[in-house]
Design brief:
- This protein has three domains: 1-46, no CATH class; 62-104 and 256-406, no CATH class; 107-253, no CATH class.
- It starts with a helix and ends with a helix.
- Helix 2 packs antiparallel against helix 3.
- It is 72% helix and 0% strand.
- The radius of gyration is 22 Å and the shape is globular.
- It has 22 helices and no strands.
């Protein structure tokens, strides 16, 4: 076994895992390369006995990720657009490969995991500082939302996810007595970056998950008051930046999309993200109603949605854009039917159950964040979403047996 011949390579597993997470913020090609290296490390460096033992111990989570992937693979058989279906399956390979390579070997040591998470926080702090500096240099002021995240070529919603995860890690560090002032400054900075990115659901989900943990699941006055102070600061920052304030106000108003074809000579009206999503979900209901049992197949989701947009005369969607369903559960039931949604719900239930039972704050907050994010985004349509959920949940997930052992 190569692990016996080259034991030093095992020391770099944590670094490799960090590179998988960090590369999500700047290069999908590098991210794919690091995933391949992580899988090769598991295949070549981990003894067979260790593979069997850890696969047995973590079989539930591995089976749920693998089962979800399998449903999409099977759907190729009844997809009309097989080319699109194969591309979709390729993009979802991480659902199969990452759980095997992380959960199929010994967990990182507590200190090793702590170093990895701290390194990830500092990396995202560096990203935030770079974005602010580049924004001030190029625009002469602070850009927000998509203009801000576009400076490194990442969608604001996904960059917000990464920043929120770093904020969770930092908040957990505040439970330790060392470096409280430094961690408080980092937490405030990451919260400010969340405000600038102006991803409404991510911001709401971030603080809702923290309040739920410290007020209900694991009550502590000190941490709850810390969250209240940070939240007040976030609200003040939102109200102080006009472009961010207008985005949050748009989410509160009741604007609705007006269906109906518009003459080509008339400029098509644009809407805010909330109004567009509601209209998309209305059209998606028709597709779900006709295909709820087995779905239309992974390759025909886009075609089915576009046909529904056209029937409902949602011109902004079918003629000028290529909107997906903007909801992971709707996207899943359209693609592979109700069984896919059952697998998804079971997956989130397992992660929540493990987090609460093992008093794992990071896993609880992360799962809450990603669950709420999945209500307004088709998070498994892109590598940035799939790899983030699978990698973080597999890193933080632990069985009762492992907790007792540690």
């Amino acid at each position: 076994m190569l692990s016996e011949k080259y034991p030093q390579f095992q020391k770099y597993r944590g670094l490799l895992f960090f590179l998988v997470l960090a590369s999500l913020a700047f290069s999908m090609k590098l991210n794919s390369l690091f995933i391949i290296l992580l899988v090769l490390q598991w295949l070549l460096m981990v003894p067979l006995a260790e593979k069997k033992e850890n696969l047995r111990r973590n079989w539930k989570l591995i089976a749920l990720f693998g089962g979800y992937f399998l449903l999409f693979a099977i759907s190729i058989l009844y997809s009309e657009n097989t080319s699109s279906a194969w591309k979709d399956i390729e993009s979802k390979l991480s659902l199969l490969l990452i759980p095997l390579s992380i959960l199929g070997q010994k967990r990182l040591e507590v200190k090793e995991q702590a170093v990895l998470l701290k390194l990830y926080v500092w990396f995202l702090v560096g990203v935030g500082v770079f974005l602010i500096g580049k924004s001030l240099f190029l625009a002469g002021g602070l850009l927000t939302n998509q203009e801000f995240s576009a400076l490194i070529g990442v969608h604001a919603s996904y960059l917000s996810l990464y920043m929120a995860a770093a904020l969770f890690i930092t908040i957990q560090s505040l439970t330790h007595k060392s470096q409280i002032k430094l961690n408080t400054i980092i937490a405030l900075f990451l919260a400010f970056i969340l405000v600038v990115l102006a991803a409404r659901m991510v911001t709401i989900a971030t603080f809702l998950s923290l309040f739920t943990w410290f007020a209900v699941v694991h009550f502590t006055w000190k941490r709850l008051l810390t969250m209240i102070v940070i939240f007040i600061g976030v609200v003040f920052a939102i109200s102080s930046i006009d472009s961010v304030k207008s985005r949050f106000q748009e989410g509160l108003i009741g604007e609705q999309v007006e269906f109906g074809n518009v003459d080509d000579s008339v400029k098509v009206k644009t809407y805010g993200g909330k109004a567009i999503r509601v209209a998309i979900w209305q059209c998606a209901q028709e597709v779900v109603k006709d295909n709820w049992l087995m779905g239309v197949g992974a390759g025909d989701v886009h075609k089915s949605l576009q046909a529904s947009y056209k029937r409902n005369e949602f011109q902004l969607a079918w003629q000028y854009n290529n909107f997906n369903s903007h909801n992971l559960f709707i996207e899943t039931i359209i693609a592979v039917g109700v069984l896919g949604v059952v697998v998804l719900i079971t997956l989130f239930y397992l992660l929540f159950f493990s987090a609460i039972k093992n008093r794992n704050m990071l896993l609880f907050c992360f799962t809450t964040l990603f669950f709420m994010f999945s209500l307004i985004e088709s998070a498994f349509n892109v590598q940035k979403g799939i790899v983030f959920l699978v990698a973080i949940s597999c890193l933080l997930f632990s069985t009762r047996e492992e907790v007792d052992k540690s």
